[in-house]
Write a structure and sequence with these properties.
Helix content is 35%, strand content 19%. It has 110 residues and is of the alpha+beta class. This is Ribosome-associated heat shock protein Hsp15.
Amino acid sequence: MVTEACKKNHVTVNGLVAKPSKEVFPTDKITFRKDQITQIITVLDIPENRVSAKLVDIYRRNDTSAEAYQHLELLKLSKEHYRKNGTGRPTKKDRRDIDEFGNEIKNEEP
């Protein structure tokens, strides 16, 4: 999966497009898109041997902003209220409900 993303130029290391064989070093910043969020990972250290997925967080730091994750939550909420195909245009009442839902979310943000 990561190899395919590199081949499609979706992964950058320190601002440069990365190939699948690109070596990374401590302090490198890796940027990629996942779940409609541009994520930024900083490499803290390189392990001597392979490690389990639970231990990977020791060697990296996630520098993705909290706003990006909030945006993802809003996208998930909006999909719950998405109209099914073939149901036609929203009625006036549906439109008011959608607007009201959007206003509630905006009012909750600090």
